[in-house]
Amino acid sequence: MPSAPSCPALRSIFQTQPGQRQRRTGNQFLATSFSEKKKKVATRAAVILPWERGAQGQDMRAAEARLEEAVGLTASIGLVVVRKAALILRTRRSATLLGQGQIDSLKPVVEEDGIDVLVVDSKLTPAQQRNLETSLGCKVIDRTGLILDIFGARAATKEGTLQVELAHLEYQKSRLVRLWTHLERQRGGFGFLGGPGETQIEADRRMISERIVRLKKDLEQVRRTRGLHRQARKRVPFPVVALVGYTNAGKSTLFNALTGATVYAKDQLFATLDPTMRAITLPSGRRVILSDTVGFISDLPTELIAAFRATLEEVAEADIILHVRDIAHPDSAAQKKDVLGVLESMARDDMLEPDWAGRVVEVLNKVDLLGGARTLPQTEETVAISAMTGDGLEVLLGRMDQLLTANMEVVRYRLPLSDGAASSWLYQHGEVLQRDDKEEQMDITVRLLAEDRARFERLFTDITPLLA
């Protein structure tokens, strides 16, 4: 991908793709997506990227990559993106962010294409958001609101739900005036100069503030008991492998590639799991749970960092962390630094075990864009793959096998059928590979960590391993 182009050159990026129809070329609003052909009624969205000439930090990312990221984020909450564009800002207008000419160009696009939601890939003030909605006649969402929607949909644990709600309330608190612009500003009967609208705003703000205080107390309690929750990981019958990485790094493609051929369609054990969790079988025959996570996002608003970390609870419970990188991306090294920085901060706050780094496998994805997996050196910490073509996937599965069995032993024990405590202990702490029940005893083959085997044989001294 080329480096970030100068603003005048941005026009060449947004060409109509094959199968798309070109309508309006003014202000670089060029492409209409394939989704527009669908007859199914859906919420239609347009995505715009306000691009400031020479803005600090924006020169680091190509406009095309940033816009595609925003399109992907928008699609992830179920919106159908029918238009996308980068709009060059000469100056940030305090009232609307965009210039009046740009707003005038957007109006017919919104009307002709039936746009329900305009996603602005920038932070908007409450006044800017309200004024844009008034001018364009459609709902407007800024970058912060979009990301909050994504986090809210993905937060699963108590801490995640609380953290996202807290961020959402703090975001909404400053935007309450938007909810009451339809009320007439009449003088109230109790001497309030602002009238009923302002009175309701103050009441809502008070309720939100009280809820925020309560949420912070609840979060503190959750953090104090986090150590107890981590014990639940040891009771999971199968190891967990978590995918982390930037949005558009290919995590979902890799997830589908690994699970598509190995998922147990009739296995009721996994029938009720979240759609982002699937069972796969490694070359050794060992079954693991593969867990997808929310993609990392560039330029994450600072007020959302805590909420984002809370969506990564799956990583804290993982036996292996697959860090998926788009090795062909021009900012791949910077993205790697961002991901590791978040994981390091989670470890400092006791959200990850201190030895988390030893459980990370760096997956260098999209090698098909660079000539194939053989073009990149592979180490014990890295595996080069193409999730799209399948190149290197067998090597990746084998590496996962090695990590999971590196410090494990396969042992066969003979237990009395009446000894439920011993068999229960083995099921809870190990992976039972085979069990043969006889009249009064059972032979059970189990894979255990070396330290767990020693602990079992200390607890149950009358049970000894069978010879192979």
Architecture overview:
The protein has helices spanning 63-76, 100-112, 126-136, 143-154, 158-173, 195-224, 226-230, 251-260, 305-310, 313-316, 332-348, 393-405, 420-429, 450-459, and strands at 31-32, 44-52, 80-89, 117-120, 139-142, 240-245, 277-281, 287-291, 320-326, 360-365, 382-384, 408-416, 431-437, 441-449. The chain is of the alpha/beta class. The protein folds into 4 domains: 7-144, 3-Layer(aba) Sandwich (Rossmann fold); 155-184 and 193-224; 233-405, Rossmann fold; 408-459.
Q: What are the defining features of this structure?
A:
elongated, nucleotide-binding, single chain, 14 strands, 4 domains, disordered N terminus, 14 helices, GTPase activity, Rossmann fold, GTPase HflX, 6-stranded mixed β-sheet, 5-stranded mixed β-sheet, P-loop_NTPase, cytoplasm, 468 residues, alpha/beta
Helices, strands, pairings?
Layout lengths: L30 E2 L11 E9 L10 H14 L3 E10 L10 H13 L4 E4 L5 H11 L2 E4 H12 L3 H16 L21 H30 L1 H5 L9 E6 L5 H10 L16 E5 L5 E5 L13 H6 L2 H4 L3 E7 L5 H17 L11 E6 L16 E3 L8 H13 L2 E9 L3 H10 L1 E7 L3 E9 H10 L9
Parallel strand pairs: 2-3, 2-4, 4-5, 6-8, 6-9, 9-10, 10-11
Antiparallel strand pairs: 1-3, 7-8, 12-14, 13-14
Helix pairs in contact: 1-4, 4-5, 5-6
